[in-house]
Amino acid sequence: MNQFDKTNISDPFVSKNTIEPYSPGELNGLSFAVKDNIDVANEITGYGSPGWINTHSEPVVNAICLEQLLNAGGKFQGKTKSDELAYSLIGVNSFYGTPLNPKAPDRVPGGSSSGSASAVASGLADFAIGTDTGGSIRVPASNCGVWGYRPSHGAISVSGVLALAPSFDTVGILAQTGKILEKVMQVLLAENSNGSNAFSSVCFVDDVFQMSDRQILDKITPSLNKISDICKVQTLKLAEITDPHVNCNWLFEQLGFLLSTEIWNTFGAWIKNEKPELSSGVEYNLHGYAESANRKVIQSSLCAKKAFQNKISNFLCGGKILCFPTTVDLAPRLDEITPDFLAGEYIPRAMGVNAISSLSCTPQITIPVAEANGVPVGLSFISGYGQDMSLISFCNQLNT
């Protein structure tokens, strides 16, 4: 299959084997789907890859997050498509097609939780579970005009979830509304919402605003004005929040190197021993970036990650929230997705912004706030580690 076949728009589901709720609970009446890197008993977890399917067997039990949702009254609608090996932010899979972006049909849905975002935006599920390593919940949520949530790292169980880069991998949620997102968070975090605003101020991250497309900035201005009306606000650069050398390009370099190292640790032996079928793009990325990453400098990058995490935590511990556009570019058009485009600046720009949460291990929620020429635009909020339920309460209050 041609990786860049623009007509290959596909159904968001890999399978539609439903499971009824185990018992009534907080999610009564809500339907959901899970990304195809999350185990469903007796179905091969495909990982968006025929090579993976051909070399792995069916799991015998459900992932813990799936069990939690079924026990809370949610109805399972099926498994959704993913980018191949969850190794992209675009949403184009050369083997299984590109799930529709129903809010902007000529645009990509974003990845790698592409099918999950598409299913929610299409109204085929009230919410969906995906994974986020370097932006794979947040980017498709913004592109498809739905709510998206990356938790405090480690807050939601990843038992039964296939690994990509384990020290960055998280289970995340895509939802039609903030209220639905809040209910699902309560179940997966096993934590009640306090409904209160525990935050003292909002900080606009100037680096991200300066990078953003003018169309995005124009459309989010009313939301920023609303925040300014009801909250104490300030505008700071990342260098002022953390250290003088920190900007989005530096964050991309640190995240990109650490992800590449872990991704090869995850897949290297499998690739060498099994020689699985891979698309040309994923094969190039695995060998050209992941395998070739210089392991001799990993200690310095790990130290840089820890220092950044500490600086962000210290800044946020006083009840502050960071706010910025979820993506600095509109969702790319399907006809833009070429090898040259993928080698360009879109992915480094998107990853640099998403690296704020990924490297600091903090929770991030993206809200659909506007459309620019018919393309959804998301606005993101980051709070201190462990303040996930307070953050969703704040976002829901803001959205009223």
TrEMBL record:
Note the InterPro entries from the entry. Answer: Amidase_CS, Amidase_dom, AS_sf
Q: Where is the Amidase domain?
A: 23-197
**Residues spanning the membrane:** none
Among PANTHER family, the record links this protein to: AMIDASE 1
Q: What is this protein called?
A: Amidase
